[in-house]
Design goal:
single chain, 291 residues, alpha+beta, 4-stranded antiparallel beta sheet, 7 helices, 19% strand, globular
């Protein structure tokens, strides 16, 4: 199957800006999905092709940890098959158009596996990604959710709340423990009116994109097969590190602060090409090629 080159349209971009999320048609070629799955199996078997500058401080599920939710950070920096998907032009162009950005850089990525589970251990509570990115100056950052296997509603797909990226005060939702919407609805009622949960039901090759302030989560996997997905978090070219101190006088820290090189002021450099490579640059992509 060939990938689509018509996404996103103006209507797609407007849907994203209005609702905080949008889903694509099948824009990722089948061969990229197949290669990525091969990379996943190697990764879960413990194979690492490249080593990160640090050995801990990030989520890194290993087989000896047993069943339950599997989350592995920075997989594209350790595995060539997953890196090929993350850096694909199909993703990069979509990111740039939806963010209305000239340049798109990787911020980080996560491989998320949900084995079948009769408990709630594979649920991911309501949260917003921006709550973990307080060290970033950008308000345009976003996430792509990429299923790598076929799945159904009972397997705990991504679930979003349309329009929640425009709510006030949700930038603090970093706890992952709000599993029902009762308290959330009470807190956000004046800003949002009614709350709608939308499950993202797409097939491998399709991608769901959501804003960094979108409230999202997922239910447990009650199905019979493992749900495997890759999330890709990106920043626009203008994003830079900022020192952020919360209401408890705690300085916000992201793992990138330890991974990235330092800028001339001694601060983490989120333009580090080894950790935050460019995924799309409009000027570069538009430049004529030699024949």
């Amino acid at each position: 199957m060939k990938s689509s080159s018509r996404f996103p349209s103006l209507e797609d971009i407007e849907h994203y800006e209005r609702n905080g999320y949008v889903t694509s048609p099948r824009i990722i070629p089948d061969e990229l999905i197949e290669e990525a799955l091969y990379g996943v199996h190697r990764y879960y078997a413990g194979e690492r092709d490249w080593q990160l500058p640090i050995s801990g401080g990030f989520l890194d599920w290993r087989a000896e940890q047993g069943a339950g939710l599997r989350i592995n950070d920075y997989v594209s920096l350790q595995n060539p098959e997953l890196r090929k998907l993350v850096t694909s032009c199909e993703l990069g162009q979509a990111f740039a158009s939806l963010m209305r950005a000239e340049t798109v850089r990787l911020f980080h990525d996560q491989l998320i596996g949900k084995p079948p589970d009769s408990s709630d251990k594979t649920a991911i509570g309501w949260h917003v990604d921006a709550a973990y990115w307080r060290t970033c100056t950008s308000i345009r950052m976003m996430t792509a959710w990429i299923p790598l296997v076929e799945y159904a509603i009972d397997m705990g797909p991504l679930m979003v709340i349309p329009g929640s990226h425009r709510w006030q005060g949700n930038e603090r939702m970093a706890t992952f423990n709000t599993r029902d919407l009762g308290s959330l609805e009470a807190q956000m009622e004046s800003a949002s009116g009614s709350i709608e949960r939308v499950p993202i039901l797409i097939r491998p090759g399709q991608v769901s994109f959501h804003h960094a302030r979108m409230v999202h989560g997922s239910m447990p996997n009650r199905g019979k097969n493992e749900r495997i997905a890759l999330t890709v978090h990106v920043q626009d070219g203008d994003n830079r590190y900022q020192r952020f101190v919360d209401c408890r006088d705690m300085v916000a820290v992201h793992v990138n602060d330890a991974l990235c090189r330092r800028d001339r002021d001694g601060q983490p450099d989120y333009t580090d090409p080894d950790i935050c490579p460019v995924l799309w640059n409009c000027a570069r992509e538009a430049a004529p090629t030699a024949e």
